[in-house]
UniProtKB/TrEMBL annotation:
Catalytic activity annotation: Hydrolysis of terminal non-reducing N-acetyl-D-hexosamine residues in N-acetyl-beta-D-hexosaminides
InterPro entries according to UniProt: Beta_hexosaminidase_sua/sub, CBM2/CBM3_carb-bd_dom_sf, CBM2_carb-bd_dom_sf, CHB/HEX_N_dom, CHB_C_dom, GH, Glyco_hydro_20_cat, Hex-like_dom2
GO aspect biological process, one term: glycosaminoglycan metabolic process
EC id: 3.2.1.52
GO molecular function, one term: polysaccharide binding
Regions crossing the membrane: none
Chitobiase/beta-hexosaminidases N-terminal domain mapped to chain residues: 51-216
UniProt name for this protein: beta-N-acetylhexosaminidase
Catalytic residues (UniProt): 562 (proton donor)
């Protein structure tokens, strides 16, 4: 799918499939080694192995060698050494280690262990016949090769499990994740650090990515300037028009004293409609009383203005907010909150006329792969509303989990809502993504009907539309396994009609396929009528939940992922192709047929269709509803703009979801210790999002690089093939995109804190780009243009204006907004510190001025950095170099409760 480390298989590789042999319930028995007697394990033996077996995971190299499978991953593979050290003797046989490995293992080398890919990312290590047990303190190794590359320590997944038939699986303690008490970030102590630039950090010889050092970061931060600008008048996101009031005598900014608080006059406005915004003002320190400054709220309808538009007028005697609707008043109140600096008692007098650039300003959160709590979602809604985002795309169903209770189909959450070690998958799903065997783990869970409706009501109070998504027909393993368990239950009860009522799999289907995440059983059979009955039943129930919660469902995201090779040996599909009247003549047309038909089901329920651009691009426009939302996720260096333009030219509503810049599960910076996937970008920091010009996708070829830090070209002209057929073209005159959406995929995001770390502060830059069109943005060229680093349409003047705006934005975050996030207990990412040793002094700076910096010299305690620190030596002598390597730096939150990741000065 869009979020896999390996997704580019769908786009550039044809030899990605591999035979999936075996499953979690087909582990072969292993005989004892000849000439040496090993006992059958007891549960106590298994528990002891789990407690005392020390596992280490070490990346050896990303450089493909002669052992790489040339038929897979375009010949790319990386090598890992797994080591096993027994603290005590192990004298039992017939046990296995199950573990998650994102990239499937190709081959291995070991005298005593064998390794096999099972399904998805799940692998099994078994003992060979000549396994001789472990002596106390003995170390054994297993070398394996896996597809593609590994350049981040977070690629390794935790919670290896030891298992033997008829016994309970146990997590091997040495592979459990830990939490850094200072940063709150997840640590994997069993993973050896990546420290070799050429063998470990770079993917291949073409990879020009630079490992971001503290001195590189210091140099980059210098662009922010030496002095801190006054941010008291800054609003995020930036209003369209703003005028400040100045004193006629002094020329200085006029200020309104609000120490006595404010008195709200709601007029005819329903207080409940803006209660969430008023409550936020209270939380930020504004008191509400009858002796305060008048705060007058009113709605002034104007059909010529965009929904959510408002005006804000702060004078010496009052604060006046007028919105075109209640949403506009709400947004005006949030702008008032944005003006506030915590602890300050004055507001600038000004006048604002404001409206959003995009009507769709969204964030997608994946709670399917790893669950995220209701409390996390409610906190997120607060912050989305604070920065005027208005769409929450909630990804509730995927291969690894189904997270929404559906009345009448309890199996979906009883089984699909949790992972444990059940090889038959009748009680839960098999562990994936390092979930471990505990069904009560925090990565498991679901929203009850009451939970979901609470989310909906909270969203409505903040003028946020919830767009649910339960991915189909691919990425549907959780639903398939849940309905298979239901099928088996009713088959055993001989209630055959009920068994097949919502059946998603065909027992006789022998198709062999592999999804992008390497599942061989995750695609709904689109030729079964029961599959469409399931979709209709689920959507009818979801619609009822929304209606009861007071937020009617207006739009549903199908997903629309499919898997190449599915259905080829399905008897039902062969029969359908022979006899259908829909024009389907071959198997690879079935995915589009499914999307078209589901879109029809949704239309009958008066629900609009949304889906990812790749799935939608295969559908026939005449078979789709008039309103279709397409999330365009093509990579810019791979000319992803072409698909976005093609779908917009269909007159569909395109939401820009570009992975290179809008995927928040990617690392912030190019460093192996930065958490996240990186298949489209090695670094996606807040500044990059701020730089984005979503109205003009191809222009980024002028100043961005591809995922290997090499230049690229974006051809947005009229392109024809060898036969003269038009294959791509610019946007038609007047076509525009509906909006912008950030994405948090959660494959290796196992906690709410880590989710917040990845979303914030990037969410604030997303809000800025979705709401405000800056003057430096390059207008789209409807005539077509071919962009490269040589064209320079984005000229030096625009660049200077952009960088100046960024400096003000970065200072506003550091001086004002982070304190507000801390007040709401949001675990935003604290940046790594820029630092260098120069002329015997430590120099340090930070990407968001206003945050604190701490430093630590060898053998000493952490100290607050207030300016250049004399180190007592000149850095170019031998002793200086040795000492400089021991200087460490880190950032500190405004409230002093959290620290950023510690880095060595280099």
């Amino acid at each position: 799918m869009k979020n896999s480390l390996l997704i580019f298989l769908m786009l550039v590789l044809s030899a990605c499939g591999q035979s999936k042999q075996g499953s979690a319930d087909s582990a072969p028995a292993v005989s004892s080694q000849a000439g040496f007697s090993l006992q059958q394990p007891t549960q106590a033996d298994l528990n002891r192995i789990a407690r005392q077996l020390e596992i280490k995971y070490r990346l050896v190299t990303n450089i493909p060698g002669k052992h790489c499978d040339k038929e897979q991953a375009d010949g790319n593979c990386f090598e890992v050494e797994l080591s096993f050290t027994a603290k005590e003797a192990i004298s039992v046989n017939n046990w296995f280690i199950y573990f998650s490995q994102i990239a499937p293992v190709q081959s291995f080398e070991s005298e005593e262990f064998a390794i096999k890919h099972l399904n998805g990312d799940l692998h099994r290590i078994s003992l060979k016949d000549n396994f001789s047990g472990f002596k106390a303190g003995e170390r054994k190794t297993l070398l394996f090769r896996a597809n593609f590359w590994m350049v981040s320590e977070s690629d390794a997944l935790p919670n290896y499990m030891v298992y033997s038939e008829q016994l309970q699986a146990r997590i091997i303690a040495s592979t459990r994740p830990e939490t850094d008490p200072e940063t709150g970030l997840e640590l994997l102590p069993f993973v050896e650090p990546i420290d070799d630039l050429d063998k470990q950090f770079k993917k291949n010889k073409q990879d020009a990515t630079k490992w971001l050092s503290s001195s590189d970061l210091y140099q980059r931060n210098l662009a922010l300037g030496e002095t801190r600008p006054d941010v008291s008048r800054v609003i995020i996101p930036t209003p369209k028009h703003i005028t400040y009031a100045k004193d006629k005598t002094t020329g200085k900014q006029r200020l309104l004293d609000i120490r006595r608080g404010v008195k709200v006059d709601f007029g005819p406005l329903d207080k409940k409609s803006v209660n969430a915004a008023v409550k936020r003002l209270e939380n930020l320190g504004i008191s509400f009383n009858n002796s305060g400054v008048p705060l007058n709220l009113k709605v002034k309808a104007d059909e010529a203005k965009i929904i959510g538009s408002y005006s804000l007028n702060i004078t010496s005697g009052a604060i006046n907010i007028s919105g075109v609707d209640a949403n506009g008043v709400f947004n005006g109140l949030q702008s008032l909150a944005s003006l506030l600096t915590l602890g300050a008692n004055e507001l600038p007098e000004l006048f604002i006329e404001d409206e959003p650039h995009y009507g769709f300003r969204g964030l997608m959160v994946d709670v399917a792969r790893n669950f995220h709590s209701k409390a996390f979602i409610l906190d997120l809604l607060d912050q989305m509303a604070a920065y005027k985002l208005n769409k929450l795309h909630l990804h509730l169903g995927d291969d690894e989990g189904w997270r929404l209770e559906i009345p009448g189909l309890p199996e979906l959450t009883d089984i699909g809502g949790k992972r444990c070690f059940d090889p038959r998958e009748q009680d839960c799903l098999i562990p994936q993504l390092g979930a471990g065997p505990d069904p009560k783990s925090g990565v498991n869970g679901y929203y009850s009907v009451a939970d979901y409706q609470e989310i909906l009501m909270a969203a409505s109070e903040r003028f946020i539309q919830v767009i649910p998504s339960l991915d189909m027909p691919g990425h549907s393993r959780a639903a398939i396994k849940a309905m298979t368990a239901r099928y088996n239950k009713y088959q055993a009860l001989e209630e055959f009609d009920k068994a097949s009522q919502f059946q998603l799999h065909e027992v006789e289907d022998t198709s062999k396929y592999s999804s992008v995440q390497f599942y061989h059983d995750n695609t709904i059979n689109v030729c079964l009528e029961s599959s469409y009955a399931f979709v209709k039943e689920v959507m009818t129930q979801v619609q009822a939940m929304h209606k009861q919660a007071g937020q009617p469902i207006r739009r549903y995201h199908i997903g629309a992922d499919e898997t190449a090779g599915a259905w080829t040996e399905s008897p039902a599909c062969k029969a359908f192709i022979r006899s259908n009247n829909s024009g389907i003549t071959k198997t690879d047309e079935l995915g589009a047929y499914f999307i078209e038909r589901v879109a029809g089901i949704l239309a009958d329920l008066d629900i609009e269709t949304a889906a990812w651009s790749d799935g939608l691009s295969h559908t026939r426009k005449e078979n789709m509803p008039s309103v279709v939302q397409a999330n365009a996720w093509g990579l810019l260096p791979w000319e992803g703009h072409k698909q976005a333009h093609e779908l917009a030219n269909r007159n569909w509503q395109v939401v820009i979801s570009t992975p290179d810049v809008m995927y928040f599960d990617f690392p912030y910076e190019a460093d192996p210790k930065e958490h996240g996937y990186y298949w489209a970008s090695r670094h996606t920091n807040t500044e990059k999002i701020f730089q984005f010009m979503p109205d003009n996708l191809p222009v980024h070829a002028e100043f961005w690089f591809d995922r290997e830090e090499n230049p690229f070209v974006s051809d947005d002209t009229f392109v024809k093939d060898a036969r003269g057929k038009l294959v791509s073209m610019p946007l038609e005159k007047g076509r525009k995109f509906l909006g912008l959406q950030g994405q948090l995929w959660s494959e290796n995001t196992r906690s709410d804190d880590l989710a917040e770390h990845k979303i914030f502060p990037r969410l604030l830059a997303l809000a800025e780009r979705a709401w405000h069109l800056p003057e430096w943005a390059v207008p789209y060229n409807y005539q077509g243009f071919k962009y490269s680093r040589e064209t320079q349409v984005f000229d030096e003047q625009r660049r200077k204006r952009r960088d100046s705006d960024w400096a003000l934005f970065a200072n506003t975050l550091g001086q004002k907004e982070f304190a507000k996030l801390e007040l709401s207990d949001i675990s935003y990412r604290l940046p790594t510190v820029g630092a260098k040793i120069d002329n015997g002094h430590l120099w340090a700076n930070i990407a968001f001025p206003g945050l604190g910096i701490e430093y630590k010299l060898a053998g000493k305690n952490w100290q607050l950095y207030t300016g250049p620190v004399p180190l007592g030596y000149v850095e170019d002598n031998a002793q200086g170099n040795a000492e400089a390597a021991e200087v460490q730096v880190r950032s500190v939150s405004n409230n002093g409760k959290r620290r950023g990741r510690t880095t060595a000065v280099r």
